[in-house]
Design a protein that fits this description.
The protein is built from ten helices and 21 strands.
């Protein structure tokens, strides 16, 4: 069967490549995915998905129904991409979609527009070869992954899929994996630590309490904490970093009475959010014991996001960690079949964050599989290999086929 999927993917090479180019040529900065959503919807309709629609928040969903609605596999990828930072650094226009040496170049090529094309066309191949059996094949392409907080994904699961009684059993994320099976990621929490002083005119600084001076022990203790954080053989390092410092009031002749530190904390599945927050609170408590004038508050930063369709929600800057066990029965069903297809395949994990922490946390077995390469993410030479693109199309179909018996 894997050879049939390979052959069908090769037959559709021109269509798959052309569609991937079209996606790359379509700007879809975070919060501005309206145009690309219409392009994706039209492709789903052209390829005769049983159902294709755009939901209230702006996600695009396509469904090919199997005979058993109790088991559902979903392939999902973000539609948005980061803003190209400096067009001058790009050898080609970031929206060119130009082909050079068997790779398609442009912003979002690796994360995750190549994946979108491969996921959509895999479903078409399964339908064409009469391989859709008892499992529903669902694709979903989300808004605003770049905003963090799983804005589009949460709406998809808590509203769109729930309204259709579609309970997802297995999720395949299209974030870049270089055709490997990715099993997890570190979590990310963006903390806001506010340290308070008392403002006064800088002519008489002794009449105020300078909040900047109060951050000195905070920095030291955070550095000390960093040295004690654990490592993991697959997920690498648990980390903490101060990423910005803001003072208020921001005036040349004023003593600041507030100093705001943004703290980026990357953590493992066995480090709970309460534990992570507790480490920072312990630092605050320790300094308060050393300095009776020290005052501080700690919270996870949140922001109000609005999708291109006008849906608004406050979202915490939080991405949960996850790790799927490679010995899981579903993984053990998929891995040997993919290995027959492409020979070189390994298990890995993302350095950056995906929405997999959310899906895993609600009980869905989650992996990543994609033609994109993580090393190209957010670089001026981002590209996706056409060879990988065609292989991923066959691979996504193979994943579905390998799960038919287990459901």
């Amino acid at each position: 069967m894997d050879q049939i999927f390979k052959e069908e993917s090769e037959k559709l090479r021109d269509d798959i490549v052309s569609f991937a180019q079209k996606l790359i040529q379509t700007p879809s900065n975070t919060g501005h995915e309206g145009h690309i959503s219409e392009i994706i919807l039209a492709e789903l309709q052209k390829l005769n998905y049983d159902e294709a629609f755009i939901d209230r928040i702006g996600n695009v969903v396509g469904i090919i129904y199997g005979s058993n609605t109790d088991f559902n596999i979903i392939y999902s990828s973000p539609m948005d991409h980061v803003e190209p930072e400096n067009f001058k650094l790009w050898e080609n226009d970031p929206y060119s979609g130009v082909i050079v040496s068997d790779a398609i170049y442009g912003i979002g090529a690796s994360d995750s527009k190549g994946a979108i094309a491969s996921q959509i066309y895999a479903g078409s191949i399964l339908k064409k070869t009469n391989s859709i059996k008892n499992i529903n094949y669902i694709v979903a392409f989300m808004v605003q992954e770049g905003s963090a907080g799983c804005f589009g994904t949460k709406y998809l699961y808590e509203n769109t899929l729930k309204d259709r009684n579609l309970n997802i059993n297995f999720a395949v994320l299209g974030n870049a994996t270089s055709l490997n099976i990715y099993l997890g990621q570190r979590g990310r929490a963006e903390f806001e630590l506010s340290i308070y002083g008392r403002t006064n005119n800088s002519i008489v600084p002794w009449l105020g309490v300078n909040a900047i001076y109060k951050i000195t022990p905070v920095i030291k203790y955070i550095e000390d904490l960093s040295d004690t954080l654990p490592t993991h053989p697959l997920l690498d390092e648990s980390t903490i970093a101060i990423t910005s410092v803001t003072t208020l009031p921001d005036k040349e002749n004023s003593i600041p009475d507030r100093c705001i530190l943004k703290i980026d904390r990357r953590f493992f599945p066995n480090e709970s959010l309460n534990d992570v927050k507790g480490q920072l609170q312990a630092i605050i408590n320790k300094i308060m014991g050393e300095d009776s004038t020290f005052r501080a508050t700690l919270k996870i930063k949140s922001e109000k996001f609005t999708s291109y369709k006008g849906f608004t929600q406050d979202v915490p800057r939080l991405m949960l960690p996850f790790l799927t066990d490679e010995s899981h029965p579903l993984i053990q069903k998929i891995y040997p079949e993919l290995k027959k297809l492409q020979e070189n395949i390994n298990f890995g994990a993302w350095y950056f964050n995906t929405d997999g922490g959310y899906t895993n946390n609600i009980g869905i077995t989650t992996i990543g599989y994609s033609p994109g390469e993580e090393k190209f993410y957010n670089t001026p030479f981002e590209n996706v290999s056409i060879k990988n693109l065609i292989m991923a199309t066959a691979g996504n179909a193979t994943i579905y086929k390998s799960l038919i018996q287990i459901s």
